[in-house]
Every structure is written in structure tokens, then in C-alpha cells.
Amino acid sequence: MNWLQQQWQLLQGQSLDKSLLIPAIALMVIGFIMISSASIDVAAIKYADPFYQSKRQGVFIFLGLIALCSCLFIPIQFWQKHGALLMGLGAFSLIIVLVPGLGREVNGSVRWIPLGSFSLQPSEFAKIAVVTFMAGYLVRRQAEVRTNFVGFLKPMLVMMVFSGLLLLEPDFGATVVLMGAVVGMFFLSGMRKLHLLAVALVLLPVIAAIAMFSPYRMKRLLTYLEPWQDPFGAGYQLTQAQIAFGRGGWFGEGLGNSMQKLFYLPEAHTDFVYSVLAEEWGAMGAIAVVALYAVLIVRGLKVGQLAERLQRPYAAYLCYGLVFLIAAQAMINIGVNLGLLPTKGLTLPFVSYGGSSMIACAGIVGILLRISVENSYLLTLVQRRQIDNQRMQAEAIAADEPADFVNGEGPYVEHQP
User: How far is the CA of 131 from the CAs of 58, 110, 304, 306, 334, in angstroms?
Assistant: First the structure.
């Protein structure tokens, strides 16, 4: 109880970062509106309740807000201390989903664990677990990562295990997102550009081989290159998404007036909800959503930079990794909807229908907010120290005596509240 009171007092003393919170809440609201619009006709026939998916998404948003608040109360030191344990739990959950009879298969992929009327997608939380561990590794082995390529190869063994488990589901999209986030973390930690180039030269052929030697992935790639060669077969989903964008124009057909959601565009409320949004809200609405993601991502990176300046390397690397998870997933989903990337089966963070994705993304925002709160707290302490030093210096000068004080501009050792 004392711990909870301490955390509450800390949060009361600092204002929440609105540049992180407002875009996330706005995307949740937009997602709820678009899911209600995109699913109403399909749900009326499939579930005899036009608001079936809307009600469930409302529950997911509520659970997401609980996850956000919970992560906001947890000190960053907790994630650093238990990074290895969390990574182990993440790997265990990915193994459980592959056990026959436990995992649930949807559209040829076994990614979900049924929990009554809901389903849990372990990969959404496993990605966060890996990032928490990698941030700790970068703190412990920072010098080795910056000077020796071996420092990067060691955690790649961990990545090989997680990538293998994800590909067995199969979930190629989650693998790409996780790899991108981890490589981005290593790059921002000071990894040499030559080493990064070597990693790219190794990973790109591996990714290409995975796609080429998998028939359904190769089919997706060929369809992406020319979807209109088979508009009623393999290219049906992409062509219908492009039609939705074309119909939307600059200002859209109006909320609820999408034609593509009427059984033309598959997964209109999940992977392709952005296409329905573009049809109903137009290019201006689609750009507004991208702008919200840009504000969230840029602000998240700035929070990480401030943590680094305050000599909080773990908080900084954790912040970078979590921001990259959201950024990569949003970019891939929007790219798929626009026809710029092959279909991947990734949700649009905060917007697409789905409980696991909503809870995981909201939890990420909660952690980012916590890092921002601790940054503000430590920055306040530094400023107070500088004021005290200036006062002591003024008093010493007035007394014509040598001052004995600590230079407030020097390195500040992190103190966890």
C-alpha cells in the first residue's frame, strides 16, 4: 500500500505527457468509430447483432486503458530487473500457442490461444518482452556493441529463437516488426554503421529466401507486384482496397457510406480498416491519422533522447524499442492498404479490431508515459540542485568565503523514484 501511495504521489507531482497521450486516445476513438462503421453490416448477418464487434472493441479499449494505467504505475526499474524473466515468459507463450489443441487456427495461421469468448495473441506481448530484455543487454554490453560485432551477434541468437517460433505460426509480419525494432535499438545505441551494413547484407537474403521458399508467401509477393492480373482471385483483397481509396477521393464519401465494407473488402474491420477509413473520410482523413502516428512516434523518440541525456540508458533504449514497434507496425499496415507492400496480416495499432493488439499498444503508451514522468521528476531534481548551488555560491561570495558545493551541471546519477 505504501508503494502504491508513493507512485500516486509521484504521478500527482508531474503532469502526463499530452503529446503521447492525446494521439493514442484519439487513435483509439477513431478506431472505435471506424470498426463500428466497417463491421455493422457484416456483424448484423454473421452475429445477428450489428454492434457485436463494436461492443467487443469497447471492452478491448477499456482493458487497454487499464493496461495503460497499470504500466504508468510501474517503475522502469521493474522492467530492467525482470527483462530476462519476461523474455522467458514470452518464449513460453509462443511455444504454448503451437501445442496442438491449445492454439486456435484462423486463416491458416495458429497465432491465438482461446480464452472463453476471447482470444489471446501471445506474439503481441512477446515483442514487448524481447524489447525489455534487449534494452537491458545494451546497458550491460554497451561498449562491446559499439566496438565489436560479436556484441551484436550474441543477442541475435535470442532473435533466431523468437523468429523461428513466430515463423512456425506462421507470422512473418511480426518477425519483421520485431527485427526492425531490435536493429533500430542497436543502431541508436551507437552500433557502427559498417556493422549495421553487414547485418543488412545478411538479413535481406534470409528474408528473401524465406519468402521464395514458401509458396503462399511467394504468391502474395507476385500478387503484390501485379494485383490486377487476378482481381477476382489472389489479387482480390488488394484491388478492393485500392478501389476504396479511389472512391474516397480527397474528402471521402462520408461516415457510414463505404461501399467496400459491404462484403467486397475482406477483413474490413481488422487489417484493412484503413482502406475503409480512406473511403469514408478521404485522403484528408487518412493523412490526419498518419499525422497522429507521427506526433506519437516523434514525441516518443524525444522522450528517449531526454532519458539518454539524463543518463538513463535503459529507459532510453526501452523507449526507442517500443516506439519502433508501433512505428514499424503502423507503417507496414498502411503500406499494405495502399498497395505499397505485400499483405502481412498486421493490425493497425490502436485502430484495428483486436484485443491483444489494443492491450499491448496501450501498455506501450503507459510505459512511455512512465519514462516521461520519471524524466520530468529527475529534471526537476537537477534544476533544484542547480538553484541550491547558485544560492550557496551567492552566499559564499557575500560572506567572502570559498564555496563548497556540488556542480549541478555535472553528470547526474539516476535515482529511481
Answer: 28, 23, 14, 19, 23
